Amino acid sequence: MKTRKRRCLFLWPEVKRSIGLGHLYETLAVAQAAAGEGYHCTFLLAPYEPAKEVLAKTGFPYVEIRGGVREILRRREIRKAAYGNPFVLNHRAVKLSNQRLLGRAGFRVVVIDQLGGLRIEADVLVNSSPVRAWHRYSFGRVPPRTLFGLRYALLRSEFRKISGSSGRAVKVVVMMGGVDRTGATVRIARALKNLPIEGEIVLILGPGFRHNEELRKVLSEAGRRRRFVPLRAVSNVADVLRGAAFLICAGGNSLFEAAALGIPSLVLWEDGHERIQGRACENLGFALCLGSGRKTPLCRIRSEVLRLLESKEERLRMAKRARKCVDGLGTLRLLEVLEEREGNRPIY
Length: 348
Description:
Rossmann fold; alpha/beta; seven-stranded parallel beta sheet; single chain; 17 strands
């Protein structure tokens, strides 16, 4: 009896200090869902230690690459697995040449993008941003299957269990990304160290966080007046978020993770595109885009946090909007597309 060829999924997220780990976390969500359906998942990874630390905890194998797609295709085990299997590209700007080379090698190419404006020659294109202006692309002769909007937010399974913002202001969670390049966490801690409220402020520090001494000094100054809880190596972010009054974040994927749990966000953006996305989420009603994490005055951060903590009605209203906008099922919807057949040509 003929045995079915093993289904493989290759994932190539862009990882480096200048852009953080958002692309990795997004592709990790896809890998976790695919593994549950029997795919053998392999990551292609640049030599960036924080990214390796994240993957080491998941058990997913990875191949370290220092070049580009030609280096990947020189590997015999990858070439052999090419025909009909999906290859996920998740870079800040996915190169057309990479799409073409992988397609010619026999892969079903899946592009995960955010900012739009690219030429896409792939089988599937995912852009989960709520910014409609970023959904503009040019396509080849055969356009891809397009999956646009928050319905396709790629979240890990831990974010599919609805929680909701706490009616009581039990805690505030600060999560400024896997790297926090500008050290906004330190500024936020300084702004909140004398906040006259009960409850704790949880600081989730990513594997690339390097502002340790500055943060230690701020927490030492706060002493017992403010209960800060710094956390590293968090394996399940959703567990930490549950019960939070709201999340303070930079405006990346963390916005959608919190929204899926019914938790509103206050955005202190790091990069310009996060400002645009933060404002889009504010317009949808589940976030407040306060300003730059590097430049917003500390007094304004403090006053806005205090105002939101004291406004239970506003938080509950934002939580309701969050649950309506992000249901946490985007990864499963992508997987359904990978399982579909087009005529006699399987997606996988």
